[in-house]
Amino acid sequence: MDEESRTVTERIRKESGGTPAFDQLAATRDRDELAGVLTAPQQPLWARELAAYRLGIAGDHRAFESLVLLLNHRDPERCAAAAQALAVLGDPRTARAAAALATNELRVAYALHPVRLLTQLRAPESAPALITTLRRRLAPHDPYRKVALACVEGLGSLADPRARDVLTEASTHPRLAMAASAALARLPME
After folding, report:
1. Of 82, 79, 87, 137, which is closest to residue 108 (Cα–Cα)?
2. pLDDT tens across the length of the chain (190 residues)
């Protein structure tokens, strides 16, 4: 088990109170048992998260829907774990789902991890979604500075020339200026 997986598992262990049900889910190698937790009624959130995370890391696509729901959760640690598992899962629907979450203005408070996942995926949907999300974050007094900064950094990493206009605009915002200038420098010359 790598360090990130160990951290996720330990967080969930604490949340579960160290119940025997946690020990069973953490120890099982039976993917069908884990998948059953995702659809069984009255399962606690920690159990669904552990099952989805373990299935995602194992490359089992039955975890996809649960991981997408967790990617948009109000708890940043759950979002980060879901993003990690989705990146490993390699499901072709992931980029489209992450783009939908990143650009949903009703859930923008939870868009940080979808934005970071889009950057990591480097999918065709990545740059357009980050451009749209960043453009909205450039409105005066927008409170989602971390999301805006993640978009700027992501666009710099993607080095997509379509981002030039929005990054130029971002470079005029004091809190984004340095990152936007660095991102602009990474774009190919026109």
Report:
1. 137
2. 689 999 999 999 999 998 999 999 999 999 999 999 999 999 999 999 999 999 999 999 999 999 999 999 999 999 999 999 999 999 999 999 999 999 999 999 999 999 999 999 999 999 999 999 999 999 999 999 999 999 999 999 999 999 999 999 999 999 999 999 999 999 998 7
Q: Which of 66, 107, 108, 112 is nearest to 89 (CA)?
A: 66
Q: 1-91 has which CATH code?
A: 1.25.10.10
pTM: 0.94
| Of 20, 3, 76, 14, the residue nearest 46 (C-alpha) | 14
SS (H, E, C) the chain: CCHHHHHHHHHHHHHHCCCHHHHHHHHCCCHHHHHHHHHCCCCCHHHHHHHHHHHHHCCCHHHHHHHHHHHCCCCHHHHHHHHHHHHHHCCCCHHHHHHHHHCCHHHHHHCHHHHHHHHHHCCCCHHHHHHHHHHHHCCCCCCCHHHHHHHHHHHHHHCCHHHHHHHHHHCCCCCCHHHHHHHHHHCCCC
Packed helices 94-102 and 64-71: angle between N→C axes, nearest 10 degrees: 20
